[in-house]
Amino acid sequence: MEKLYEWVRQIAYVMVLISVIMQLAAGKQYQKYIRLYTGIVLILFMLVPVFRIFGTDTTGFMTEAEKKYTEMVEQIETKSAELEEEDVEKSLEESEEEQTEAGRIEVGEIRIGR
After folding, report:
1. Are the C-beta atoms of residues 69 and 40 closer than 8 Å to each other?
2. Which residue from 3, 54, 80, 82 could staple onto 26, CB 3.0 to 4.6 Å apart?
3. Where is the composition biased (Basic and acidic residues) (predicted)?
């Protein structure tokens, strides 16, 4: 019975982690990939008891899956931060251009003398 509680607890942790990752995702273009990968990880967590019944060692497999999952999350967060930084830089450049254009006076013709 203790193992059942531990298994349910692990699934709950994974679901919370999935929810956090979905909220942190930079844009909708990444969400389908995140859903796919997190779905695979969730299925693996649900299959752990079945693997144990048949005597298959899942410890190494799950550890490797967790490492890959963590790497993917870090890559997404890094890419998200880079995209946000690029957006800020781009908006600053556009703002600077607008301010520069607003301060200019167009001169069509200049006459010196009479």
Report:
1. no
2. 80
3. 101-114
Please give the DSSP secondary-structure letter assigned to residue 97. H
Query: CB-based contacts of 76: which residues, under 8 Å, 6+ apart?
Result: 21, 24, 25, 26, 30, 34
Both tokens assigned to 112:
């010196």
Nearest CA to 59 out of 69, 70, 45 is that of 45
Q: What is the pTM of this model?
A: 0.42
Largest Cα–Cα separation, the chain? 104
Interval 7-23: pLDDT, tens = 888 888 888 888 887 78
CB 15 within 8 Å of CB 42: yes
Contact between residue 22 and residue 31 where contact means Cβ atoms under 8 Å apart: yes
Non-local (6+) Cβ contacts of 73 within 8 A are: 21
- Domain-wise residue ranges, the chain: 2-94
